[in-house]
Each structure stands twice: as structure tokens, then as C-alpha cells.
């Protein structure tokens, strides 16, 4: 999965609308969103996983770390999802496995979006030499696939959750920067910006007070999209062995540890975490997709 | 046109240089002992020192950087630290393997995805459209290592329909090679289907809503004629752009698939090089992926310009 | 019968006689006798005569899984028992060679297996997979105190690379190269100029000191001791200069995908049943198993229990399980930190539930360890030391005495096979005694360089090691390397910084003993000291697992990644 430039046209009014109108527009957007079943389902699933992650061991049927039963028991009444190779209850581990990915992925996405927005604002507004140089740097990063660079860096640096957050966040920055930059570029040509300039307001002021609120829309959409990609990327990195490290019950890691057993017919320790990954990425993407289509209309 | 292409190529060179530098920095960010990594922790110190001396990895980092860059400029990619043989032939073989897999994946996805996207756009907001969008979102959300694993077990081992190792025997004919690559290509195709279908759909919707199309409809062109002549060309523009951007990923990013199917494409080669600190292979590999990406984006921009001459080539994209 | 036995007794050298008498008096089991006698150069016929005369003793509990009857000609019996089909090829899954295919400098199992197809050793692996037998040497004889060994070389052997004959000069050249490269097996045993060609067919080794185990060091169990031509330049790789004396000729080699070999028609061992072999390279074991299940490979050079569960259940797969000295050491710093007090180390060792570890991690395919690296398969192993078992109460008591109740420590390990799972199980076992272990898993390279033996400080070696960690050790035919490198003061792999003059003295004694009694006595001392001081926890020695489809027969393998296909054929 790679990083697609999402918005094909930026959304911006001809003149910067006053604050109360912006708030009304936001409320209207929310109302439209909640009428879409995709949005509701997606949000519910994500919230469900967040609650599970927060409650953690308090709601698991067994201790996911220290209780060992017979290895590879098939799903049954005692263990709804069976046991893994060391005899730990799979359902408990799937529930607790949400915790690591729901901490690492959003932080990585947040880092990418914050840094990328800042970079994109600077690049788009201060068009010229600065933009040219930074654009080349951005393009260099975009040429290499995120997974590959993340993998290489983690192999060299050794992986831990903090390093994963930093690496994935930094690698997302150029993509976000590009999106924000194109949004800023179309904004800055608009009348209200010229008006502000003529009024003698400083660049920084224009950037923060006038332009930024208008690119906030695409940025928020971008944030949700990045969140989905972050989960996907962190899960893949964990599968490759350089993401979240054992003995965490992280889903991607569990798939890596158990998938070779699928050949013996032991499908449950692999399938359930895989479904968990799929479910949360689908949910996040549903939310992001509806946000996109609503804000682009 | 020629001026445009030459300007793009020049800028690409700058980007490639930056790329090589980034990879070099990554490989050397931590003080490391290349000789020790290659020979392992149980090797006697004398062998490690001898190897470092032979490879030149005990020189200061700046000198090594200049040396590497100078080599790249003269197209001398150097010898691998591991095999001692020139880097380029083995890398090109890996590129060829990745290209075959990527090609098959795109061949499987593009026609189906574009047709699905067009179909969905024409039946906007009806059940078919909602269904295709949902399918697209779902399929692009399932990581390839999940679909790959399930395919291997179900199709490869249980049903024994397709081989589980993607590397075909040497000198196999094309149908055999396709048979071997079919499963990993399908795992990749499932993910891309979602993106390409949704991109095509949104591009088509934009075009259908545009003034240009409405004018054409008013001029009396029938619906299918409209679709074919005006809409298709413009609708596919974002799709072409997406495919170009994905190319780099198709070459180096599908390493999870390569792992499951034991296929030695660019991803595995680069990973192997990183683990063994084989810096010449890493830098050369990064440049090659970068070149592929540059060529892909250049080609897609040219195609887009051909499809819609009204898009100026040197406007910001 | 007794006449035969007397004949043997009269014709043997003092060392060989010592072994014979030890067996006669019941100080060695039959298996141990065969092993020791072979190493000391007694012929199969002589061994058979001795055993027949003495009626044999009860087999020890540590008998190997697969064994050949003594005195039987191994190749003939193996071939005669199963009808062989001539022709065909076999596809073997093997770990990718980690570096250049350099027979002198190689250090990984992928390379060992790759080179062992073409080159050969003075002492080869016997079909049972655990003893040595004639290879390029047909006979070897020690002198009185094991300081001089004479090897008779096989005649009529040719190098398939250029057709030149194999002579003593090749052996001498190989030994010089190995000594110059600092080969770990020969270090301190053989010096420069130690190997001399008495004539074209005999080589005399003069060792730096008496050593009763020398033949192991020029056998399959010292993987780099492959014999290469006299004019072989150090640093040449097999693919750059393909040659060898072995059953297979290298045809193609591609580090990315694999290698193919073809029959060597001039091989001294006869005509191999198979025409060609194909080795396919993999990075991890999972895809190897999948490939076998998908019928794209026929044999696996090595796999582990956790990844290979499917193979045990497969009725068409023949598992070759060799008991081996493969193990993990849980080192604890003895010089500083929380484990400096012996009682704390004993406490941790007392939390190990060894049978549970063996069952959970290896499905029973391992032997129990007693916190010292003397594998039960070594002939001088003393089983009389009491086996440490789990005793939580005693562990708690010891911790209380040492004032470390509620001890918390970081347990570092690398990402290799079952080690992260071992760490997880140890964590929960230690928790029963109130010990909290924080498991920290890293990639192997990072782990070795940061926690096991960091390059700084350099002296003493490994003094930068963490206070607790798990490290892996491969199979060795003698425990010398384990004792010397990991446990002797200032050993190069001594992560526990164990420095005990008593141990060093006992180890010296062990190294220089050549008679059976002396070796056993020294070993008993070593086991006792280590079990008491516990610088390393050692819960198990696990079996080396290889295997093939039952469509093939006659395959045998060492515990060092070398799979031998010269007797392999398709099953009729």
C-alpha cells in the first residue's frame, strides 16, 4: 500500500468566511456524516477497539501473558478462539493486542501530519527557492516506498516502539506536506490573501490566521487516512519482525509467529489477529472515505 | 516538449543524488563494524580487521561518502561486500524478478479496477456503487501478508492448485512463469484494486459533473459517445497518476509477499543488504528504485498531457 | 574369540588399549566405547572383536536415536536393506549462505552445507550421523600420550576440478591455511608446521600438547577443516574455483536462489545413485516447510519444532532427529550486579521448570540440562551429579538470604528460533518465586553487539555484557569450545565474566587428560563446580532436526548443517 494523493481538488471558498459561518458549516458536515452508515459502522468499530485496548486485561477471559494451557487447542467452549503455540488463550491476546498498535499507529500518524502540515504550509506559502529545494527532498522521500525505508532504518537502528513511531512519522511527513502544499498553493492565489497582504499583515499572520483554517479540512481528512496507513504499515513491519517486538501480543507479530502453522491445519492463532487487523483498517478507511466524499461535495 | 523532458530529467538527477545520500545516511547512522556484521559475532578479531581493511570500511565516513558518490557518477556501482562480485548484475536480476511480479499484478488489477470504477461512477449512490466502494475500501485495507498467507494455505497447500514458491525453474516458458507468480500477484492485486477502482470512480464523477461534459451532452452527443470520447480520457488522469506513484511500492514495498513466497525480488534483496551492511548494494538498489519511480512519474505525466492537452505541463502538480 | 581380543590388545597403542580396558571393566558403555575407540583410531573390525569378546555392557540412557551395529559395514548394509533406484534428482531446502562460500573463513550453517557437497574431511561422518569414520583418511593412530597423530591417506582420489591426484601435500597445505586463519577448533592444539607429510600417503601431526580428541578437529565436526588443494589460495570461494574430492561437482551457484550439483563420476566412494542435486536457498524456516508441503522441495537441511509441526504429522516425511549438544546459555554476571551472589543465581536456576520447557518448546525433542555444557552424549559425561529441578520454596529462601526478594532484572535475548518463547516461559516461571524479568528481544545483530559481547571494553572480552541474557550455541563434538570460550577466565565469549581458578584448573586437567579415567574424573569436577556456581543456566540440549520425503532414502546429516546425499536414492 502506498501513499496516494487524495484530494484531486482543494475545497476553498472565494472569500474567507467569518467564524460563525464556519462553525455552522462544520455542524452541517457532521450531520451529513452521521447519516452515512459507513461512517457509523466505521466509528463504532474503532471505538470498540479503543475501549477494548483501554480496559485491557480487566475484561479478558484469561491472563494473556501468564496463563498457559495445552498448546494449539482448537476453538471451543473454553477458548472461543483456541490457544496459541505456548498454550495462551488467543481471544485474550487478540483483545490485548489492540493496545500496542492503537498507541503506536496514531502517534506515528500524528507526528507525520503535524510535521507534514508545518512543512507543507511553509513550502506552499513561501513559494520560490525554499519550496524548490524542499520539493526535491520531498520527492526523494516519495520515490522510495515507506515500508522499505522503514524496514531498512529499523534493521539498522534496532526496533522499539519509540523508534517505530519516529520512523513511520518522519516517512509520512513528505506525503502530508505535498497534500497541504497543493492546498496552500490554491489558497494563496485567492482574493482574501491578496487583500490581507495589501493590508500589510505579515506572512506568518496570514499563514496562521487566514490560510491554515481553510486547509484544516483536507488536513483532518488526511489525518484519518494516515491513521489507516499507519496501522497497516506498523502491522506489516511487525510481521516482518522489525516493528513491535515480542513478547507483545501485537497482531502483526502474532501472525508472523504463527502463520507457518497454518499448513498443519492450525488456522486460529493466525486468522483471528489477521481479521482484527483487517477490521480496524477497514473501519478507519470507511471513516476516512466518508469524510473525503462529504467534504469534497 | 523536449525542453520539458530535459528539465524533468535534470531535476530527477538531483532527486536521485538526494536519494542515494538518504540511503547512505541510513546505512551509516549508527557507528557500526561492517566486517563484524558480515562475519558474525564468533569470528576472530583478526579476520574482522582484515575484512574491514579490504573493504575500506575503516575509513572516515566523509571519505567513504565521497567515494561512493564519485563511483555512482561514473556509473561504477562497486562490488558487493558479501559476494565480492559487481553489484549491478545481481541487482538487475532482482529488478527483473520484481518487474515480472509487478507487471502481472498490474495486468490483473487495472482492467478490472477501471471497469469497476467506471461502472460505479455511472450508477452513483445506487447499490452497485455503494457495493463497489465498500469492496474497494475492504480490499485495500487487508494487508498483503494476510491475503498472501491465506492464499498459500488454501490454494497452494490444501487445494494444490498453484505452486507455493514463486520462483519458477530456470528457463521456464511464459505460461509456467505466470503460474508461479499468480498467487503473489493476486495478493497484491487485491490491495490495488481498491485504490484504482476508487480513484477511477472519483475521477469519473468529477468529470461527469464538470461543465465541459454537460456542454458536450447538450451538444447532442449520445451518452456512450460522451463517455468514451470525453469522459474516459479525463477520468483516467488521476488513475494514471496513482498507478505511477504505486510503481515504487510495487518494486520495493511488497517485501511481505516476497517473504511468504520466498521470492527474491528487490524488497528481499534490499533487506538482505541492510542486514549484512552491504552498502554498495543498498545505495545502488535505492538509485534503481528511484530511477524506476522517476521514469514512471515522467511517463504518467506525459500520458496525462496527451490525454488532456489543456493541462499545462509545467504547472504545479 | 579371546584370541581375537588378545590380538587386538597386543596390537593397539597405549591410548587405544586404555579405552579397550576401560570398556572391558565396564567403565564405558558400549556406545561410549565405540565413540572413543573410533576417535582413537581403532578399526571397525577391532572394535567389533572387542565388543564380541566382552559381551557388551548395558546401553547407557543417553543412546543416540539412530545407531548402527558395530562392525557392520555401514554403506553396504544401508544399501542392502532398502532397494535403491538409480537416477533422478533431489531438491533440498537449506539456509542461505550468509557470506562468501569460503571454506576456510565460513561460519554459518548455509555455507557448511554448501561446501560439504564438494569437499571432504579426513574423518567423515558415519551414517548414524553422530560418529566419525574413514573419509580422506583411512586410518589414524595416536602415540603414547596423544601428542603425535599419524594419518594414513586414502589412495586413488582425484580432484574433480583439474583431475590431479589427492596427496599428503594437499592436507599439509590445508592445515597451514587453517592455522594461519586462526581456526577456532585447532587454536591452541596445532601450530604452524605441525602437519608434516611423511610421504605421499601419510601425514604426521605433532600437536602443541597431548589431546585425546584430535581426530574430531580434522573431521566433519570442525566444518572449516575441509581438505582443499595444496595450491588453493586463502580467500578463494567455491564458485570462483570449483573443485573438490567429494561425490558432487558444483554446476551452478547463485547466492540469491540456490546451487545445483552433478555426480562426480570419479568419486572414490563409487557411483552415487542420484544424477544431480539441487539446493534451494531460504532465509527462514517457515517458507521451507511450506515449500515441502507444496511439493517443491524434497528435503530440509534443518528445521525447528515450532515451525515444523506439520512435518511431524506428515506420514510421508522422514524426520532425522539427532541428539546434539545444541543449547542455550542463560548467563548471569558473576562479578557485579544483582547476580553476583551465587545464591541469587541458584535461585533463578531453581525456578526453571525444565520438563515444561522441553515439552512446550520442543515437544519433548530435547535432553534435560543441568546448568553446565557437558552434553549427556559426550562419553565422559558423569550422570551422577544430582539433576536440579524446579523448587520454588528453596528459590524464595535463597533470595531472602541474599536480601533480594522481589528481584527485578532485564532479560535480553536475540530474535532466533525459540529463544523469545523461552524468555516468555522463563519469565512466568521466575514470577512464581517473586522474580520479575523484563523480556527485551532484539534482532540478532543488535543483541550480540549491544548486550552479549559489546566490542568495548575490549579487555577482558565481553565485560560490557548485560547482567542477564540468553545466547545460543551450536553443536560441538567436544565441550572444549564451550568451556574455553564461555567459562574460562577471560574467555572470548565469557559474558558471565566467570573467573574461577578452581574451574580453570579443572578445565586444564580435562584438556590434557587422554585416558578414559582421567577424562571422566576431570569432567565430574567440572560438572560439580558449574552446577554449584551456576554462572550459566542451561535447561536443555535440543535435537538437531532435518528430514526428507519418504520418496528418498539413504540421507544422513550432521548437527552442523551438513547433509550428505552420496548414498541417497529414490525409494523403489
Features:
heterotrimer, A: 297 residues, mainly alpha, 10 helices, 70% helix, disordered N terminus, C: 572 residues, alpha+beta, 10-stranded mixed beta sheet, 4-stranded antiparallel beta sheet, 18 helices, 23 strands, globular
Short overview:
Chain B is an all-alpha fold and 317 residues long.
Beta-strand percent range of chain B = under 5%
Shape of chain B: globular
**Helix-strand pattern of chain B, N to C?**
HHHHHHHHHHHHH
Sheet with most strands of chain A = none
Output the radius of gyration of chain B.
Answer: 24 Å
Folded structure, characterized:
The complex is a heterotrimer of chains A (297), B (317) and C (572). Helix content of chain A is 70%, strand content 0%. Chain A has 297 residues and is an all-alpha fold. In chain A, helix 2 crosses helix 3 and helix 3 (90-125) runs antiparallel to helix 8. The longest helix of chain A has 37 residues, at 203-239. The two termini of chain A are 26 Å apart. The model of chain A is unreliable at 1-15 (pLDDT under 50). By secondary structure, chain B is an all-alpha fold. In chain B, 76% of the residues lie in helices and 0% in strands. Chain C is α+β, with helices and mostly antiparallel strands. Helices cover 31% and strands 21% of the residues of chain C. In chain C, the strands form 6 sheets. In chain C, strands 2, 9, 10, 11, 12, 13, 14, 17, 18 and 19 form a 10-stranded mixed β-sheet that branches. Chain C has a 4-stranded antiparallel β-sheet with strand order 5-6-8-7, with helices on one face. A 3-stranded antiparallel β-sheet of chain C has the order 1-23-20, with no helix packed on it. In chain C, strand 9 and strand 10 (258-263) form a beta hairpin. The model of chain C is unreliable at 56-83 (pLDDT under 50). At the A-B interface, helix 4, helix 5, helix 8 and helix 10 of A face helix 1, helix 6, helix 7, helix 8 and helix 10 of B.
What is this structure's SSE topology?
The complex is a heterotrimer of chains A (297), B (317) and C (572).
Chain A: H1 19-34, H2 37-55, H3 90-125, H4 129-143, H5 146-157, H6 161-188, H7 191-198, H8 203-239, H9 251-258, H10 268-295
Chain B: H1 2-28, H2 34-39, H3 45-55, H4 61-73, H5 87-122, H6 127-141, H7 144-158, H8 174-209, H9 211-218, H10 223-252, H11 255-260, H12 266-275, H13 279-307
Chain C: H1 2-11, H2 14-24, H3 30-39, H4 44-54, H5 74-81, E1 84-85, E2 89-95, H6 109-115, E3 123-125, E4 132-134, E5 137-142, E6 148-153, H7 168-180, E7 195-199, E8 202-206, H8 214-217, E9 248-254, E10 258-263, E11 276-282, H9 285-293, E12 299-303, H10 309-313, E13 317-332, H11 342-351, H12 354-362, E14 366-368, H13 392-401, E15 408-414, H14 419-431, E16 436-442, H15 444-452, E17 468-473, H16 480-487, H17 501-512, H18 516-533, E18 536-537, E19 540-549, E20 552-553, E21 556-557, E22 563-564, E23 569-571
Parallel strand pairs in C: 2-11, 2-12, 15-16
Antiparallel strand pairs in C: 1-23, 3-4, 5-6, 6-8, 7-8, 9-10, 10-11, 12-19, 13-17, 13-18, 13-19, 14-19, 20-23, 21-22
Helix pairs in contact in C: 1-4, 2-3, 11-13, 16-17, 17-18
Amino acid at each position: 500500500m502506498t501513499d496516494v494523493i487524495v484530494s484531486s481538488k482543494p475545497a476553498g471558498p472565494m472569500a474567507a468566511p467569518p467564524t460563525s459561518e464556519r462553525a455552522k458549516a462544520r455542524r452541517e458536515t457532521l450531520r451529513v456524516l452521521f447519516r452515512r452508515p459507513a461512517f457509523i459502522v466505521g466509528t463504532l468499530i474503532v471505538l470498540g477497539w479503543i475501549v477494548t485496548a483501554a480496559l485491557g486485561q480487566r475484561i479478558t477471559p484469561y491472563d494473556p501473558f501468564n496463563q498457559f494451557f495445552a498448546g494449539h487447542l482448537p476453538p471451543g467452549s473454553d477458548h472461543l478462539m483456541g490457544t496459541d503455540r505456548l498454550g495462551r488463550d488467543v481471544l485474550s491476546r487478540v483483545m490485548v493486542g489492540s493496545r500496542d498498535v492503537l498507541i503506536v499507529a496514531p502517534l506515528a500518524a500524528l507526528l507525520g501530519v503535524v510535521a507534514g502540515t508545518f512543512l507543507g504550509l511553509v513550502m506552499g506559502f513561501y513559494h520560490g527557492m525554499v519550496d524548490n529545494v524542499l520539493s526535491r527532498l520531498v520527492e526523494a522521500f516519495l520515490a522510495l516506498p515507506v515500508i522499505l525505508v522503514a524496514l531498512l532504518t529499523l534493521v539498522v537502528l534496532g526496533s522499539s516502539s519509540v523508534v517505530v513511531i519516529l520512523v513511520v512519522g518522519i516517512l509520512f511527513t513528505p506525503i502530508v506536506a505535498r497534500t497541504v502544499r497543493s492546498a496552500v498553493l490554491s489558497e494563496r492565489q485567492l482574493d482574501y490573501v491578496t487583500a490581507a497582504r495589501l493590508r500589510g499583515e505579515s506572512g506568518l499572520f496570514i499563514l496562521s490566521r487566514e490560510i491554515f483554517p481553510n486547509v484544516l479540512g483536507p488536513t483532518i481528512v488526511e489525518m484519518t487516512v494516515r491513521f489507516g496507513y499507519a496501522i497497516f504499515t506498523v502491522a506489516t513491519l511487525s510481521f516482518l519482525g522489525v516493528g513491535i517486538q515480542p513478547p507483545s501480543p501485537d497482531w502483526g507479530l502474532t501472525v508472523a509467529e504463527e502463520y507457518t502453522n497454518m499448513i498443519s491445519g492450525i488456522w486460529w492463532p493466525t486468522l483471528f489477529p489477521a481479521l482484527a487487523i483487517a477490521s480496524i483498517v477497514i473501519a478507519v478507511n470507511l471513516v476516512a472515505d466518508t469524510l473525503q466524499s462529504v467534504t469534497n461535495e | 516538449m523536449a525542453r520539458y523532458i530535459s528539465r524533468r530529467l535534470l531535476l530527477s538527477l538531483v532527486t536521485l543524488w538526494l536519494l542515494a545520500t538518504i540511503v547512505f545516511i541510513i546505512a551509516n547512522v549508527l557507528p557500526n563494524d561492517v566486517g563484524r556484521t558480515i562475519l558474525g559475532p564468533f569470528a576472530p578479531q583478526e579476520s574482522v580487521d582484515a575484512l574491514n581493511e579490504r573493504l575500506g570500511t575503516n575509513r572516515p565516513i566523509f571519505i567513504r561518502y565521497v567515494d561512493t558518490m564519485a563511483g555512482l557518477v561514473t556509473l561504477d556501482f562497486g562490488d558487493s561486500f558479501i559476494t565480492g562480485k559487481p553489484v549491478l548484475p545481481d541487482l538487475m536480476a532482482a529488478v527483473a524478478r520484481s518487474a515480472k511480479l509487478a507487471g502481472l499484478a498490474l495486468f490483473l488489477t487495472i482492467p478490472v479496477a477501471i471497469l469497476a470504477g467506471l461502472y460505479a461512477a455511472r450508477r452513483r449512490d445506487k447499490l452497485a456503487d455503494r457495493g463497489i466502494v465498500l469492496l474497494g475500501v475492504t480490499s485495500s485495507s487487508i494487508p498483503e501478508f494476510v491475503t498472501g498467507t491465506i492464499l498459500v494455505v488454501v490454494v497452494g497447500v490444501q487445494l494444490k492448485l498453484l505452486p507455493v514458491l514463486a520462483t519458477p525453474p530456470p528457463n521456464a516458458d511464459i505460461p509456467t512463469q505466470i503460474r508461479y507468480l499468480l498467487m503473489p500477484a493476486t495478493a497484491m492485486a487485491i490491495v490495488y484494486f481498491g485504490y484504482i477502482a476508487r480513484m477511477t470512480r472519483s475521477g469519473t464523477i468529477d468529470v461527469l459533473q464538470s461543465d465541459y461534459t454537460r456542454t458536450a451532452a447538450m451538444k447532442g452527443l449520445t451518452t456512450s459517445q460522451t463517455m468514451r470520447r470525453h469522459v474516459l480520457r479525463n477520468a483516467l488522469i488521476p488513475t494514471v497518476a496513482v498507478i505511477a506513484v504505486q510503481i515504487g511500492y510495487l518494486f520495493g514495498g511488497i517485501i511481505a509477499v516476497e517473504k511468504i513466497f520466498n521470492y527474491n525480488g528487490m524488497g528481499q534483496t534490499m533487506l538482505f543488504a541492510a542486514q549484512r551492511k552491504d552498502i554498495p548494494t543498498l545505495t545502488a538498489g535505492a538509485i534503481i528504485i528511484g530511477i524506476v519511480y522517476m521514469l514512471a512519474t515522467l511517463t504518467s505525466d506525459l500520458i496525462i498531457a496527451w490525454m488532456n492537452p489543456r493541462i499545462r505541463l509545467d504547472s504545479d502538480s | 574369540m579371546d584370541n581375537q581380543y588378545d590380538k587386538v590388545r597386543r596390537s593397539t597403542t597405549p591410548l587405544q588399549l586404555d579405552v579397550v580396558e576401560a570398556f572391558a571393566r565396564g567403565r564405558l558403555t558400549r556406545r561410549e566405547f565405540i565413540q572413543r575407540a573410533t576417535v582413537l583410531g581403532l578399526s571397525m573390525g577391532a572394535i567389533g572383536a572387542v565388543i564380541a569378546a566382552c559381551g557388551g555392557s548395558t546401553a547407557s540412557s543417553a543412546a543416540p536415536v539412530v545407531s548402527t551395529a558395530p562392525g557392520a559395514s555401514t554403506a553396504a548394509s544401508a544399501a542392502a536393506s532398502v532397494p535403491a533406484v538409480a537416477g533422478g534428482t533431489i531438491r533440498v531446502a537449506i539456509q542461505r549462505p550468509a557470506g562468501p562460500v569460503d571454506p576456510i573463513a565460513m561460519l554459518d550453517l548455509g555455507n557448511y552445507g554448501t561446501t560439504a557437497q564438494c569437499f571432504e574431511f579426513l574423518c567423515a561422518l558415519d551414517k548414524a550421523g553422530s560418529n566419525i569414520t574413514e573419509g580422506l583418511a583411512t586410518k589414524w593412530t595416536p602415540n603414547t600420550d596423544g601428542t603425535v597423530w599419524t594419518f594414513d591417506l586414502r589412495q586413488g582420489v582425484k580432484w574433480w576440478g583439474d583431475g590431479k591426484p589427492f596427496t599428503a601435500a594437499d592436507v599439509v597445505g590445508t592445515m597451514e591455511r587453517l592455522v594461519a586463519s586462526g581456526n577456532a577448533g585447532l587454536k591452541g592444539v596445532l601450530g604452524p608446521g605441525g602437519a608434516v607429510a611423511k610421504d605421499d600417503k601419510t601425514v604426521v601431526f605433532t600437536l602443541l600438547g597431548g589431546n585425546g580428541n584430535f581426530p574430531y578437529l580434522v573431521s566433519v565436526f570442525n566444518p572449516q577443516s575441509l581438505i582443499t588443494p595444496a595450491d588453493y589460495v586463502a580467500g578463494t570461494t567455491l564458485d570462483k574455483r570449483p573443485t573438490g574430492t567429494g561425490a558432487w561437482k558444483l554446476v551452478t551457484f547463485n547466492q540469491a536462489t540456490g546451487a545445483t550439483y552433478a555426480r562426480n563420476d570419479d568419486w572414490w566412494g563409487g557411483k552415487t545413485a542420484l544424477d544431480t542435486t539441487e539446493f534451494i536457498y531460504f532465509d527462514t524456516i517457515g517458507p521451507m516447510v511450506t515449500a515441502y508441503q507444496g511439493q517443491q522441495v524434497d528435503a530440509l537441511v534443518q528445521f525447528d519444532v515450532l515451525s515444523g509441526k506439520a512435518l511431524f504429522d506428515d506420514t510421508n516425511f522422514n524426520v532425522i532427529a539427532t541428539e546434539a549438544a545444541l543449547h542455550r546459555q542463560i548467563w548471569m554476571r558473576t562479578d557485579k550486579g544483582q547476580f553476583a551472589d551465587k545464591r541469587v543465581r541458584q535461585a533463578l536456576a531453581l525456578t526453571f521448570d525444565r520438563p515444561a520447557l522441553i515439552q512446550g518448546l520442543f515437544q519433548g525433542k530435547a535432553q534435560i540440562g543441568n546448568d553446565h555444557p557437558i552434553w549427556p552424549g559426550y562419553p565422559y559425561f558423569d550422570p551422577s551429579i544430582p539433576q536440579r529441578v524446579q523448587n520454588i520454596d528453596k528459590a524464595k529462601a535463597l533470595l531472602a538470604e541474599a536480601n533480594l526478594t522481589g528481584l527485578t532484572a532485564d532479560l535480553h535475548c536475540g530474535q532466533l528460533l525459540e529463544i523469545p518463547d523461552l524468555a516468555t516461559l522463563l519469565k512466568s516461571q521466575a514470577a512464581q518465586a517473586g522474580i520479575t524479568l523484563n523480556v527485551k528481544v532484539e534482532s540478532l545483530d543488535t543483541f550480540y553487539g549491544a548486550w552479549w559481547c559489546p566490542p568495548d571494553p575490549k579487555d577482558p572480552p565481553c565485560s560490557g555484557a548485560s547482567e542477564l541474557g540468553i545466547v545460543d550455541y551450536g553443536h560441538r563434538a567436544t565441550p572444549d569450545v564451550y568451556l574455553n570460550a564461555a567459562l574460562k577466565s577471560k574467555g572470548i565469549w565469557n559474558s558471565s565474566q566467570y573467573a574461577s581458578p578452581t574451574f580453570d584448573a579443572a578445565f586444564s586437567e580435562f584438556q590434557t587428560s587422554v585416558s578414559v579415567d582421567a577424562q571422566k574424573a576431570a569432567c565430574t569436577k567440572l560438572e560439580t563446580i558449574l552446577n554449584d556456581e551456576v554462572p550459566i543456566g542451561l535447561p536443555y540440549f535440543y535435537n538437531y532436526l532435518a528430514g526428507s520425503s519418504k520418496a528418498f532414502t539413504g540421507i544422513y546429516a550432521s548437527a552442523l548443517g551438513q547433509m550428505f546425499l552420496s548414498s541417497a536414492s529414490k525409494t523403489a
